[in-house]
Automatic annotation (TrEMBL), chains A, B:
Domain of life: Bacteria
PROSITE patterns according to UniProt: PDH_ADH
Molecular function (Gene Ontology), one example: prephenate dehydrogenase (NADP+) activity
GO BP of this protein: tyrosine biosynthetic process
Pfam families: PDH_C (PF20463), PDH_N (PF02153)
Keywords: Oxidoreductase
Prephenate/arogenate dehydrogenase domain sequence ranges: 3-291
Annotated source species: Giesbergeria anulus
Protein name according to UniProt: Prephenate dehydrogenase
Length: 293, 293
């Protein structure tokens, strides 16, 4: 049980965390700060936060748990802003989708005060942003990856695990580098492809006709193209090496299929589609692929 | 009201059409043929068809409505097989996802008997194949594109429109060529990308870890990668020029995003993601994009 959550960034992710923590009875009071005063104001009116703080530093004053829910590019500045009130007793977490850059920012901003900071990535989200979509259920049933570094305090890692589990999450740990490599592959790349796909269509003169004929396959495939531009811009830039490496591997796989189509290689094409189809069919969210193929 | 449906191909699409037609009270009897006798047998046991025919030709004997629900590559052979029992009074349709090749097959197989054939593409499907997934609701609320040619009889076009409307579909007409161009863009391309995406991941040594971390974005984006290999092999090959042209445009859009990431062009990257995000957000299935952006 915490006395006070200091929430820095009162958007979808931060607001949902505050609502979930309150509903679970894990916090008495939420003090919130957002860059835009109108966001903080709305968060208070909605009951997402109890008190508006005029700065990130003041949101942390008196807090025993702090959540940084800002675009990853704002991590370093936010940590610098709160550094003077960071104590070895508090639990500080973020919710960023990339972790190597977050760890780097924490090292740079907090230095030897980085012990209470546990980098966290809850795998959830919506194709809508803003506190008005905050939802106490956003984290329920989701996976949360913790990426502690050598300086991270064990007590805070345990606390972080307990908090997320109390919100209904499954918690696993990995290194920031392994995290970023894996999420470049299963999350950042498909977002990049979905954005490129929509832009490729939108640039054609017949795009209105195209879009009017699109069906349920298009709908599901392109859903993630509705993601928040600033968030995704930051993710691509902060994880650029891994994202570009995955995009290169993807293009090789695409060119291989194109070549089989161009040459009319019926069996080769069927074999590669079968590989994809069976792999996808046997995939279960959050589990392993079944063995044997 | 029809007396007898001759169903050639008793899989998901054909079986669902038979069930829907029966439920709507539009047909008295269904005679079915499948290449595999076990499929036909199962279709009869399930009540999808009433009588098993030993050949495509015999499935058409006595039919006043015929549905060809076979892979598009089998269209010409199927039409040749039934040609001798085709009459100017019957309504013959297919459900193929590509239309220029189907029209070519009809011209070649039926010649001056092509009048009663109305090429049709109902925009629906499942990521599972086979008569065991046949569903009377598969076509409800879906769009159906008719692509009649110069020889197609007006009476049959009207009948085709009425049948699909009675099953709960919206019906539109366009040329086979416009159809294939549009569906290369909004359906065939995303399937190709989804197959390439899964294969790109599956080929990496850490793929088991990757798949275990995949979340809801991955799930929706890759759903269509579970499609039937033979169906999609045929679609890509029969519409190869349009598919390859769309894939080329896509790769240009992808390389443009990659270049902005590589050079760290924050604003340019945000602008292109914003274009994609707004376009996708304003898209509504089966409707036009909203104006003003």
């Amino acid at each position: 049980m915490f006395e006070q959550l200091g929430l820095i960034g009162c958007g979808l992710m931060g607001g949902s965390f505050a609502l979930a923590l309150k509903r679970a009875g894990l916090v008495k009071r939420v003090v919130g700060y957002s860059k835009s005063p109108s966001t903080t104001d709305r968060a208070r009116q909605m009951g997402v936060i109890d008190v508006e703080a005029p700065s990130a530093l003041l949101a942390v004053a008196g807090a025993d748990i702090v959540l940084l829910a800002v675009p990853v590019s704002a991590t370093e500045a936010s940590l610098k802003a709160i550094k003077h009130l960071v104590t070895p007793q508090m639990l500080i977490m973020d919710v960023g989708s990339t972790k190597a850059d977050v760890v780097k920012a924490a090292r740079s901003a907090l230095g030897d005060k980085a012990g209470p900071f546990v980098p966290a990535h809850p795998i959830t989200g919506r194709e809508v942003a803003g506190v008005e979509h905050a939802d106490a259920d956003l984290y329920v049933g989701r996976q949360v990856i913790l990426t502690p570094i050598e300086r991270t305090l064990t007590a805070q890692i345990r606390q972080a695990e307990e908090v997320w589990k109390a919100l209904g999450c499954r918690v696993t740990s990995m290194s920031p580098e392994s995290h970023d490599e894996a999420f470049a592959a299963v999350s950042h790349l498909p977002h990049l492809l979905a954005f490129a796909f929509i832009n490729g269509l939108a640039g054609q003169p017949q795009s209105d006709t195209f879009f009017s004929l699109a069906g349920p396959g298009f709908r599901d495939f392109s859903r993630i193209a509705g993601g928040d531009p600033k968030i995704w811009r930051d993710i691509f830039l902060s994880n650029r090496n891994e994202v570009l490496a995955q995009s290169e591997l993807f293009r090789q796989a695409l060119l291989q299929l194109e070549q089989l189509i161009r040459s009319g290689n019926t069996q080769g094409l069927e074999d590669l589609i079968t590989l994809a189809s069976e792999t996808r069919t046997h995939w279960r969210m959050g589990g392993q692929r079944s063995k044997g193929h």
